[in-house]
Specification:
Layout: H1 8-21, H2 31-38, H3 53-68, H4 74-81, H5 85-88
Helix pairs in contact: 1-3
């Protein structure tokens, strides 16, 4: 894979980071922001209440895939994150 093309997990993590930074916007399920924020004591940047960091990241990723990307199939996920066919083939 070329150096400038990121792996799927890197692209997905970056998208989830952006979603978190925007306070989890989701028109179809706006309560997700409140639910995910509740995992932290002081809102988005606070200490975690009950979960470990990796558990919260897993939940954020799951809900990003379900709510924002509308539970894509694997081929559709690759098409979304790698719009250029040549990037998907590497």
């Amino acid at each position: 894979m070329k150096d400038d093309i990121k792996h799927l997990h890197q692209l997905l993590a970056a998208k989830v980071d952006e979603w978190r930074a925007q306070h989890y916007p989701c028109e179809s399920f706006p309560a997700i922001a409140e639910i995910l924020d509740h995992a932290r004591i002081d809102g988005q940047d606070g200490q975690l209440r009950f979960l470990r960091h990796a558990q919260l990241v897993a939940l954020e990723t799951y809900w990003y895939l379900r709510l924002v990307l509308d539970t894509p199939t694997i081929p559709r996920l690759y098409e979304t994150l790698y719009p250029k066919l040549s990037d998907r083939l590497h």
